[in-house]
UniProtKB/TrEMBL annotation:
One of its GO terms (molecular function) is aminopeptidase activity. The keyword Transferase does not apply. The lineage of its organism: Bacteria, Pseudomonadati, Pseudomonadota, Betaproteobacteria, Burkholderiales. This is D-aminopeptidase. Its main location: membrane. Its EC number is 3.4.11.19. It is found in: Membrane. Pfam families: Beta-lactamase. The keyword Hydrolase applies. Residues 115-436 form the Beta-lactamase-related domain. PANTHER family: D-ALANYL-D-ALANINE-CARBOXYPEPTIDASE/ENDOPEPTIDASE AMPH (PTHR46825), PENICILLIN-BINDING PROTEIN 4 (PTHR46825:SF11). The gene is dap_2. Keywords: Aminopeptidase, Hydrolase, Membrane, Protease.
Amino acid sequence: MIWGTVAHPQTRSPCIKFAKFVFAALAAPWLNKSAFLHVLGNQNKGNAVARCNRNHEVFFSVGRRQFLGYTGAGMLAAVLPACGNDDIHPTPYEQTIALGQQMIQQAVSDPSKPVAAISVAMVKGNTVVWQQAFGLASVPGQIKATPQTRFNIGSVSKLFPALAATILVDRGLITLDTPIVKYLPNFTMLSPEYAQITTRHLLSHASGLPGTNGRNLFTFEPVAGYAADTQAELANSHLKHLPGELAVYCNDGFTMVEQIVLAVTGQSFADFVQSAILVPLKMTHSSYLTSVPSSGSFSLPYVNGTQHQEFVNAYATGGLSSTPTDMMNLAQMIYGGGVFQGQRIVSAAGIAQMGTDQTKSLTINPSPEWRWGLGWDTVVQPALNAAGVPGWEKDGGTAFYSTEFFVVPNSQFALLVTGNTGYDARAIAETLVLSALKEDGTISSLPAKLGTTAPPVASGPGIASGAGIYGNSDSPYQVLANADGSLQINQWDADTRGWAQIGGYRYRSDGWWWSDTDTASYRFAVVSGNDSEGNAFNFRYLMKRVVPGAGYAYLTLPVGQQLAALAALDSAWQQRVGTQWTLTNDSPSAVPIAVLGNPPAFFATLAELPGYVLYGNEDLRYQLFVPVSDTLGGMSIKVPGNFGRDLYEIRFASTSAATLTIGSSIYARI
């Protein structure tokens, strides 16, 4: 069994063969590479989206497509201790701490979805006012977690390449807006526009890189060379959009910062961060696991009766192992304008750049509430914004852990919560941060929670143009326009190789399409104009709106792009339909191989959308590819946010080749 749960991969919004949709706040019927990778990104934002794809939560069980099983959910509650190992200073936040203890203890003790361990810390000014760990760091050893127990914090790690880059700017070694080919002359891609990519693009998800190199991302032993492997993979890839055209969550951009740091300093990224950031910040319980650690306390996944240590080999994008208390030192430096305990770590201008909205110049941005910073998921945190308070947020996850980090710079306040997947980290973090701000008088009252009940039916616009197939990086959507003016929304299902109904929706007085049973609502958005190359575009997106976290703010994002039918597939591609393929070059210690096994990928087609091929498995998810030639299947969509996050190309050496490549992964025909 695994102690902690991972979300249904079809819920993903926030990767590739490791990726696509895992939102650690949801439980899932299975764990896949897609899930593993996706949680490196905005999994908790996606949690809300995920919830809307499946209006129920299913926990690990053994069966078809379900390989991680509880032998009895009640057993977890029996072995989890009460909250312990706390070190609470005198504080004005007694109510918030009591609320947090109650919420977290409930999460680790809930027999329906138990979590092995959760750790939290909160800082005000220069004082850590709360640090506490709950549950077990080692399930078989019955070892309690303490505030010194380290967790893999996933994409919260992205703040460190952003800091590294700003330090390099301070030292005059790079600028954010210089094309990275100046620092990486051997970097190349098949799209000539790769030469326009800047470090700012890399750190704000606007580079156009395909998404995530899933090969050997999560393993049970350290695997070196991930960043170099990613750069080599990109040499055989096209961009998925022009640099700066849109922002879609992209792990590979941060991995390329590793290569820049190495090129301009001569130090590996892990060594540079250690010497330039972790040591001066006195983060003595934080590091990248480049080798098997010989000391320290770690939260350890317990999988199918065996305890492991998780290694995240994509250091810059998600590889830091840390504690909430260590991360409070980082928070003090951030709201201290780059200074920690009298020592300047980075310039105030660098911190300001990280906290600046990077989305204002995007050409395609149908979800303007997504306010990417440099490294930050948002520099206008929606729930805090609803309370009138500026705040910055970064979330993250790995195959086994889920983390939320909030910094409220004007209030000199921060909180980080981390733990085994299976709990809603964002809901806990939003609730506690707002509670603390109310308790210390920053805000007079909490913002109103948003309702999820459908408003009255209203007379709607014509919807015939919205009908059709919408592609994304997960699995296609189908929109049907009914004669009575309602919509039916379906999603392609791998089990049946057909369409599964999500629900029927009617136009409502707020301008969105609702059902009476789904808390999500939908509408269409059309974005048109000319790109930076002067080419006209006109994209129709299916938009989804949800209320994530603690329920104080809406989140909207495009979940698919409408696609037009193409000419019929030629014989080379027709002959591939129905064939199956197996991954051949992951490490045996890779988590998805060691835990999931190696499920075959397959080719299929959609009768409703001629001219495309559908390829994937539980790991890759199911993407629609455009045949570019008999040996190349290209990307078909440009979807911002998360639902276009990890796109691939399929390459064959010849029309009769018995192997294919996706990124740096090689698949052989079965």
